[in-house]
């Protein structure tokens, strides 16, 4: 049996779901939205509302420097597992992982540089078009 | 070639900035845009002294040096993008790996407002160029 490669959209959706779950498990806080975009041999990830309530509390108490330090350490600690997760889903090695977060906006941005472009198949528009045509025909009959 | 103008202009300005600040030549800058997000990868940003420090595994000091350099250059690159694309960046995420010498940037533009037709035209044009 031939196993079909997922489409780019399917891979991006899987990555978003798994990364959201990963942050929930690790930090007890789920980012409200995770956007993944694959292009060439790179992956861009944007996490919205990624800052934990604990970090927000530090900011509220005027301890911005400490909050920055906490965030940068958390990013550093999560990096190897995130690398593994991306490798596992895309089945391609991650050669570079760059990440940054803004505490004011709560946004985290990650860029993963991959060893190769992951295997994807193009969305089968022709199949959808055929199915649509058949349905239209059935309705007109 | 009008479609290459913004990308070319930005590349030239970023390269000039590195040349002026660090006397360092950048060879490759990669762009990708989706929605209101612009991704930029700048290859080989670390200076010769930093590369030598990495080579001899003086990691902590190299990281310290790079953090200072990034703090210095980050707002300037942000300004260059805003000036070149004629838009406002609402979030600017920036990181450099001292091992690979690569800088990754995610610039988030102000969302397009329907009532501001001039602004939306600028952003749409910018997205199309990257």
| CA radius of gyration of chain A | 20 Å
SS field, number of helical segments of chain B: 4
Whole-number mean pLDDT of chain A: 90
The rough form of chain A would be described as elongated
- Class per helix and strand makeup of chain B: alpha+beta
**How big a fraction of the residues of chain B is strand?**
15-25%
Helix content of chain A: 40-55%
Strands of chain B, count:
4
List the helices and strands and how they pair.
The complex is a heterodimer of chains A (141) and B (130).
Chain A: H1 8-27, E1 33-39, E2 42-48, H2 53-60, H3 64-90, E3 94-102, E4 107-114, H4 125-140
Helix pairs in contact in A: 1-3, 2-3
Chain B: H1 5-22, E1 29-34, E2 37-42, H2 48-55, H3 59-85, E3 89-97, E4 102-109, H4 117-129
Antiparallel strand pairs in B: 1-2, 2-4, 3-4
Helix pairs in contact in B: 1-3, 2-3
How would you describe this structure to a colleague?
The complex is a heterodimer of chains A (141) and B (130). Chain A is an alpha+beta fold. Chain A has one domain (8-140). In chain A, 50% of the residues lie in helices and 22% in strands. In chain A, α2 (53-60) packs antiparallel against α3. The longest helix of chain A is centred in the middle third of the chain and has 27 residues, at 64-90. Chain B has 130 residues and is an alpha+beta fold. Helices cover 51% and strands 22% of the residues of chain B. Chain B has helices at 5-22, 48-55, 59-85, 117-129, and strands at 29-34, 37-42, 89-97, 102-109. In chain B, strands 1-2-4-3 form a four-stranded antiparallel sheet, with helices on one face. In chain B, β1 and β2 form a beta hairpin. The model of chain B is unreliable at 119-125 (pLDDT under 50). At the A-B interface, β1, β2, β3 and β4 of A face β1, β2, β3 and β4 of B.
């Amino acid at each position: 049996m031939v196993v079909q490669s997922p489409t780019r959209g399917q891979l991006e959706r899987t990555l978003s779901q798994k990364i959201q779950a990963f942050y929930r498990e690790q930090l007890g806080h789920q980012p409200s939205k995770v956007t993944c975009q694959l292009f060439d041999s790179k992956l861009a990830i944007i996490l919205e509302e990624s800052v934990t309530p604990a970090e927000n509390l530090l900011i509220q108490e005027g301890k911005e420097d400490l909050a920055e330090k906490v965030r940068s350490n958390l990013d550093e600690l999560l990096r190897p597992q995130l690398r593994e997760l991306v490798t596992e889903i895309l089945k391609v090695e991650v050669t570079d992982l760059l990440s940054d977060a803004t505490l004011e906006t709560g946004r985290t941005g990650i860029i993963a540089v991959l060893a190769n472009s992951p295997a994807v198949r193009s969305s089968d528009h022709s199949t959808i078009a055929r199915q649509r045509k058949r349905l239209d025909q059935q309705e007109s009959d | 070639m009008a479609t290459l103008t913004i990308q070319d202009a930005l590349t030239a300005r970023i390269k000039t900035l590195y040349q002026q600040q660090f006397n360092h030549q950048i060879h490759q800058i990669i762009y990708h845009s989706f929605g209101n997000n612009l991704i930029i990868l700048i290859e080989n940003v670390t200076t010769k002294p930093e590369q030598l420090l990495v080579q001899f595994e003086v990691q902590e000091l190299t990281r310290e040096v790079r953090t200072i350099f990034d703090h210095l250059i980050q707002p300037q690159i942000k300004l260059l993008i805003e000036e070149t694309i004629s838009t406002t960046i609402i979030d600017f995420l920036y990181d450099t790996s001292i091992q690979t010498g690569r800088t990754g940037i995610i610039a988030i533009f102000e969302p397009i407002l329907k009532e501001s037709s001039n602004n939306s035209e600028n952003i749409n044009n910018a997205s199309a160029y990257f």
